[in-house]
Amino acid sequence: MxxxxxxxxxxxxxxxxxxxxxxxxxYNSGVFVMNNKHFTGVFYILLFCILSxxxxxxxxxxxxxxxxxxxxxCNFLILTTFFxxxxxxxxxxxxxxxxxxxxxxxxxxxxxxxxxxxxxxxxKYLEPAVVGIxxxxxxxxxxxxxxxxxxxxxxxxxxEKTIATCIVxxxxxxxxxxxxxxxxxxxxxxxxxxFGSICVIMCGIGMAATTLVTKKxxxxxxxxxxxxxxxxxxxxxxxxxxxxxxxxxxxxSFSLIPAVLLIAFIGNIIPxxxxxxxxxxxxxxxxxxxxxxxxxxxxILQLFDQRLEFSFPTLVCIIxxxxxxxLELIIKPKRTELKTVPSKNCAIVDAYSSxxxxxxxxxxxxxxxxxxxxxxxxxxxxxxxxxxxxxxxxIIIDNDLDKKIEQIKQxxxxxxxxxxxxxxxxxxxxxxxxxxxxxxDYKLSKHRRNKFMMIDMLxxxxxxxxxxxxxxxxxxxxEWINEHNAWPxxxxxxxxxxxxxxxxxYDFNIVGKAFEKIINDVNKMGIKNExxxxxxxxxxxxxxxxxxxxxxEHVISEIVxxxxxxxxxxxxxxxxxxxxxxxxxxxxxxxxxxxRVLNVLGVKYGPCHAEVxxxxxxxxxxxxxxxRTDGILRPDVSSVTTGLGQIKLTxxxxxxxxxxxxxxxxxxxxxxxxxxxxxxxxxxGTLQSLPHIEFIKSLPSFFLINLSVAxxxxxxxxxxxxxxPGTIYLVHESMDVIMQDYYKIRxxxxxxxxxxxxx
Length: 759
Description:
By secondary structure, the protein is an alpha+beta fold. The chain is built from 27 helices and 19 strands. It starts with a helix and ends with a strand.
């Protein structure tokens, strides 16, 4: 069973009583439907409570004969080791990421340590059911108090505040009964009662703080596995320090090892997996309330513990508390169902590739985001990058278009835009049908997608661009080449992306081969190539110019110098992208040129990714442009290089136009140099391992690696962007250091970086 959990740990979203934490606030999205998905989430949370109740009773029993600090140390050592092993390896090395983010990690560790120490020690001195109900009940109250400081995005209602207050009153009565000896453990000394009460309240505060801190970190795009593996440092240090100071007083028998393993796996790891299934379906405050079911399960299970007695007052307090839970669960949904969809809704069409990061940015600005899928069967290359939990709904465009448009209209989106190339035309079409204002010129929609039409539009407006022809006839293409005496030439599909089927041709033999490969082939966007585009070869330096527009005003978010390499069959591969300074001559030239291009192509809102060749005589010529974000972008990389980036700027362009305007006259500044290294595989087969990957991660400029091929999967010889096995992001203040690391990566790629089993 545990083996089945390990692969899923990378997708966990963390928070709550034992360190797990919530994913999405579907309830607060404004579109609440009491459907099967919701009730399934409730079931998972209740199952989590049952397993947690077992942990409470079992720890309460075993801690009578062993100091809880030993249990804590052993338990956390197992958990930390387990999460470190399953930690997502595409992230920054643990030591480096801990140093870089020491403040939030310190907050997370303090909160986690408080909840765990408070839990284990209170279970030693108080009745488990009392511990369960008090620690869980403190959560909603503390959540309400701390919520404004953590900007969790969840509005606390008067009903929630009233329920939390009533629960506090009930808990106070229960503690009074416990002090008077009217509980399952009978008489308890004043010292033990005071110490146990302090610990259980500390546990509740720690639980709530852990929830809010982790939510804040997740909003900042921390990966769940990074949070899980980073929250135990202080707990381990504290417990180890106490053990060393009490070494002569502590007794540990090897016969307790099974008990420790039981606590770690049955009481923690497996419940965490079950919990994450529930948190994807239930919103945070309701989770806090539902955790109050834990004491009733604890009360039932503790009846099997011979040291504990049946306590009627404890049962009464639990029943009263459950009554408040049911009140919240019944009244709040009825009240919410009467609400209409909030005005601050938006949609992303095909949120794949780098578009997968956009939803989180809009959610941070107070928007509820739903997804529109442009085709029923999404290409596998894009589907794997989709982050489903970032959206409260997914609408699939199919043959019944009018019905889907009406469904989208009911959700009242303020704006709709494309997340990647495949969604451009669909986004334009929906914007036009709904008459939305924050959109691009619909009459020029195809000119922003079809490579021939976009270049033709530039020619007709006197803007420099390559000579070209589109044709489905090979002879016509050959005649055009002879007429222009244009060797070499470039052949490519009209409506694809990346380096899909791009050919550099030096003679008619290669032209014929390229034509046959392209014509009638289904490209990476799922579109049949009915024609082939032939263009003059542009000799010079190629740049990426990423822009974001709002109300027809354009901001450059990045200019990057491309370096590409040719394949054996005259295709091209991406090599590296190098960020360029905004105070350079290149920035000035590209800024003037790209503004004209955007205006001519009717771009008024949203991101664009342009590839522009700067010829030897410094004349810029557009290679192509896409009305979407640059596919290789990562918000965390942008954060440490320019501090902004195209992803975040896109959210401002739609959701905070006043903030966006600040960047119209304020070019980006480089805080650190960076290059993106597009990985290249020279072998093919089943990937067995990456023998030198740890060395690469230790390089001075290494920031992170994003792999698209996992161990055990098929890896191909790289022939285009879609077959590249991943990207390594190098960041450093020194460009010399970055380039030294780059050459080391390329060396190991040719000398055993990819260990494969040949077919």
